[in-house]
Automatic annotation (TrEMBL):
Keywords for the protein's UniProt record, in alphabetical order: Ribonucleoprotein, Ribosomal protein
All copies of domain Ribosomal protein eL8/eL30/eS12/Gadd45, residue ranges: 8-92
Higher taxonomy: Bacteria, Bacillati, Bacillota, Bacilli, Lactobacillales
Identification of the protein by name: Ribosomal protein HS6-type (S12 L30 L7a)
Source taxon at top rank: Bacteria
GO CC annotations on file: ribosome
Length: 101
């Protein structure tokens, strides 16, 4: 199993633990209020969504990851989503470790 596959499995665990925010409006709110520790944006998201989330995460100093497609993210968390945010620092560290290898 690759580290990318492990990272996607971890996203399912994060969802079950209740440490995931999904949907563009809710993720933007989480970035603004500081609860989002990492934002995952689908690599095949629309141009306006990409610009919006890149700008917002940069201005609020929140890490942004664009390694996965909509299908991969949606399958990992069990619902169709283009952008998700992880709100737990422990899960973020583990995910970043897996993606760095």
């Amino acid at each position: 199993m690759t580290n990318s596959e492990r990272a996607l499995q971890l996203l399912g665990l994060v969802r079950r633990a209740g440490k995931l925010t999904t949907g563009e409006t809710f993720v933007l709110a989480a970035v603004r209020d500081g609860s989002a520790k990492l934002v995952l944006l689908a690599s095949d998201a629309g141009q306006s969504s990409q610009k919006q989330f890149r700008d917002k995460t940069t201005s609020y100093d929140v890490p942004l990851n664009e390694d996965f497609t909509k299908d991969q993210l949606s399958t990992a968390i069990g619902s169709a989503r283009t952008v998700i945010a992880i709100t737990d620092p422990g899960f973020v560290r583990k995910l970043q470790t897996l993606l760095a290898k």
